[in-house]
Write a structure and sequence with these properties.
The complex is a heterodimer of chains A (233) and B (535). With 233 residues, chain A is α/β, with parallel strands linked by helices. Chain A is built from nine helices and ten strands. Chain A has a six-stranded parallel sheet, sandwiched between helices. Chain B folds into four domains: 163 residues, no CATH class; 92 residues, Helix Hairpins; 122 residues, NAD(P)-binding Rossmann-like Domain (Rossmann fold), CATH 3.40.50; 100 residues, Regulator of K+ conductance, C-terminal domain (Alpha-Beta Plaits, 2-Layer Sandwich), CATH 3.30.70. Classes of the chains: A alpha/beta (233), B alpha/beta (535).
Chain lengths: 233, 535
């Protein structure tokens, strides 16, 4: 794992926050930009940065796409650049995780077609948030806690390990509210595929090894829960 | 003595609440173009005029019956009172007296009743001789039955309609704006007609074998010809007469074309202005509206959502192509710079607007609009967008209530995706308010079926929603676990079974849109039925 890198294309206002977050998580980063001034700026901020033209496949391979780079963030300023980069990277590495920003909603489809795993539209999220602030200010506060993790509330995903006490338990009998003081957001039941089922009392899922629980709660409670079910010691 | 009595009356009128109120009411009814009352009054008057004119036309051939006389009397009474009321609100007599009194006192001169009366007469005469007042007066005359000749003034009753219809007023406004061109044209036409009628009189007089007997006939012929109507009842026979006719027809065509082009040009010039006025009038009527500054990607998305949810909002963007896009989508739009005081005032920052959204792509502009908005209205809710983290503080300083950072959220989401892709999907879905799983807040209203129940009793799971927490300002919950401060309330995450729900609390739920909406409708229904029972 130690040789895995995360590459971020584009050093600009859009990627600053991402870089800050990734540093917090101690991810190994490499920042790439075609503009030497921006590269110098990143280097000044003690970041690993390199000037690179994303249009050359050879340069991408040299960088480590297809080998050491496991995650690629396309945060370039134009949709066309992001699409091109996604396309090139995907053709080199089939398993690479590619996350791209999108400026225009119609480009999202193109990015998916080019092979992006996830497309993020900051403007749409922003407008949704503004609208929420208008109509439900309380909710926005709450979501902010969950997304930004500013207060103690966090969202976490937990994969059920082998020999866990949760193996062969149904979600209804989990009693996660009472026992662990947590809120179950949803379940990925591997028997039913990769889809996340929100926990809204519609169906009962039998948990097996490998299923994923998405939970919400205080940091301490999440840790306690993880210990209990055997994810961490 | 008389002077003192006049002054006393003037001051007592000035302080009279009744006088003030009634004057304001009638001004609103008769003169204020934005008032709703005036539009009803105008409609009423149009109907009145039309029906009275139809009755009078009917009487031209038939005998009048008793009812129509009664009706005519009522109509005339209304007309006369309208005429007098307009005269009353045209100027304030008492203010003239007081003004004069104060002026003379200041200058140390004697108060002259004569001068005051002169001034008052001047004011009122200016009303009496204004074109619309003359039309009003003439419209009253035809009901004076002994003088049948006054029936001619029936036409003035129709002219009265001018006053009540906005589109006709618009047309006269256009004509007025082109006064200079139209006068020039009229003078030119008068000149042309004069020359042509003189010439035709000389060439085509009966004594020279033509058909024209008098100067009036020559004038009539010139008008018929210049307007290109050409009845053909009088035809030139001499070569000279035919030459005059040819020349007159050609110049007539020119005059007509000139006239048409003036009117069309005036219309297109004024149209933009009228549309702007219409937008302003709509803004003034709107309540609880939201001012969206900036119609870029974010502004467009928000406007779309607001439009879908039938909220009233005003878009402001200085960029013409963005403003045109907003107009095309049918939004109320001001193509102006939102950082100017006048623009925000036009948009109704001090009346009707509840929130300003500064969502331009430029942080400097957002700070400036926020500052302007806060300065103009200290209580308005301002939500601003910050593209750079370093500007968040400045926006709060400028007076923003909430700040949204699009790139920060995107960055956070993206970083979440590495470690926890499933949790990321959940957050992403919730942030986008997906239909199959969204977090929503429902308020518990008084006497609804949830009011007073404990969480165990409420059994929210039966509605296919899960309870994430409760927002409450009840201090009895103070000792509970999972308490998070939220402004002047607290958010209780994952509350215990014995947590008692109360009116005013807010449930935070996770569920499908359908089930949340269903639960909301249940709450509203039970609230309404409780209200009914109480009555």
């Amino acid at each position: 794992m130690s040789n895995d890198y995360t590459a971020i294309f584009g050093y600009n206002s859009m990627s600053f926050e991402l870089i800050a977050q990734l540093i917090k998580k101690r991810t190994k980063l490499i920042i790439l930009d075609a503009n030497p001034d921006k590269v110098a700026l990143a280097q000044n901020n003690n970041l690993v940065a390199q000037q690179l033209d994303y249009r050359q496949d050879d340069d991408l391979i040299d960088l480590g796409i297809g080998s050491s780079i496991k995650v690629l963030f396309c945060f370039l300023e134009h949709d066309s650049e992001n699409v091109f980069l996604t396309l090139s990277a995907r053709s080199i590495d089939k398993d690479l995780k590619i996350i791209s920003l999108v400026n225009h909603p119609e480009s999202a489809e193109k990015l998916f077609a080019a092979g992006a795993n996830k497309v993020i539209d900051p403007y749409e999220i922003c407008s949704n948030k503004v609208y929420q602030l208008l109509t439900k200010p309380h909710l926005t506060w709450l979501l902010e806690q969950v997304v930004f993790g500013r207060a103690d509330l966090n969202m976490a995903e937990i994969t059920i390990p082998v020999d866990s006490i949760l193996d062969k338990t149904s979600t209804q009998n989990l009693a996660i509210h009472e026992k662990y003081n947590l809120f179950l957001v949803g379940v990925v039941d591997k028997e039913l595929g990769e889809k996340l089922y929100f926990s809204v009392g519609e169906q009962d899922h039998m948990l097996d090894v490998g299923d994923i629980l998405v939970i919400l709660g205080a940091h301490r409670d999440i840790k306690h829960f993880k210990q209990e079910i055997g994810v961490i010691d | 003595m008389l002077t003192r009595l006049t002054l006393y009356l003037a001051y007592s009128i000035k302080t009279s609440e009744l006088h003030h109120r009634s004057k304001a009411f009638f001004t609103d009814l008769l003169e204020n173009p934005k008032s709703r009352r005036k539009s009803y009054f105008d409609l009423f008057m149009i109907i009145l005029v039309m029906s009275s004119v139809s009755i009078l036309i009917h009487e031209v051939k038939n005998e009048s019956n008793l009812w129509s006389i009664y009706f005519e009397n009522i109509v005339v009474t209304i007309f006369i009172s309208e005429y007098l009321l307009r005269g009353w609100i045209h100027s304030d007599i008492h203010l003239v007296i007081i003004q004069h009194h104060e002026n003379t006192k200041y200058l140390g001169q004697p108060f002259s009743l004569y001068k005051v009366i002169q001034q008052i007469l001047k004011d009122k005469l200016s009303y009496i001789f204004s074109p619309s007042a003359i039309i009003d007066l003439l419209a009253i005359l035809p009901s004076y039955r002994p003088l049948r000749i006054l029936r001619v003034f029936l036409i003035f009753r129709l002219f009265k309609l001018l006053r009540y219809s906005q589109s006709i007023q618009m047309f006269t406004g256009i004509l007025k704006s082109k006064q200079f061109e139209l006068t020039t044209l009229a003078i030119f036409m008068g000149f042309l007609i004069f020359i042509a009628s003189t010439a035709i009189y000389i060439f085509e007089h009966q004594s020279t074998g033509g058909q024209i007997a008098t100067l009036y006939e020559a004038f009539y012929w010139a008008i018929v010809t210049i307007s290109t109507v050409g009845y053909g009842d009088i035809v030139p026979v001499s070569t000279g007469g035919r030459l005059v006719t040819t020349a007159l027809i050609i110049s007539g065509l020119g005059v007509l074309a000139f006239f048409t082009s003036i009117i069309v040009a005036a219309f297109s010039e004024k149209m933009a202005e009228f549309q702007e006025d219409k937008v302003k009038a709509t803004i003034e009527k709107s309540k609880d509206s939201i001012i969206v500054c900036g119609f870029g990607r974010v502004g467009q998305e928000i406007a779309q959502q607001l439009h879908e949810n039938k909220k009233s909002f005003i878009v402001i963007d200085p960029n013409e192509s963005y403003a045109a896009l907003a107009i095309k989508k049918g939004y109320i739009t001001l193509n102006d710079d939102a950082s100017k005081n006048s623009t925000l005032l036009h948009a109704g920052i001090n009346h009707g607007a509840t929130t300003i959204l500064c969502v331009t792509g430029n942080d400097v502009t957002n700070v400036y609009i926020t500052l302007t908005g806060r300065y103009l209205n200290p209580n308005i809710n301002i939500i601003s967008r910050a593209n750079r983290d370093s500007n968040v503080k400045k926006l709060y300083q400028a007076g923003a209530n909430h700040i949204v950072q699009p790139f920060a959220i995107a960055g956070l989401l993206a970083s979440e995706y590495i470690g926890q892709p499933v949790a990321f999907n959940a957050i992403h879905g919730i942030l986008h308010q997906q239909k199959d799983g969204q977090i929503d807040a429902l308020s518990i209203v008084e006497n609804c079926f949830l009011d007073g129940l404990s969480i165990e009793q409420a059994q929210l799971m039966q509605y296919k929603v899960s309870l994430l927490g409760v927002i409450s300002d009840d201090s009895s919950h103070a000792k509970r676990r999972n308490r998070y401060k939220l402004r002047n309330q607290h958010f209780y995450f994952n509350p215990e079974e014995n947590f008692k729900l109360k009116a005013g609390d807010t449930l935070v739920l996770l569920g499908r849109q359908l089930s949340i909406e269903y639960l909301q409708s249940l709450i509203e229904k039970s609230h309404l039925s409780a209200l009914k029972d109480a009555l």
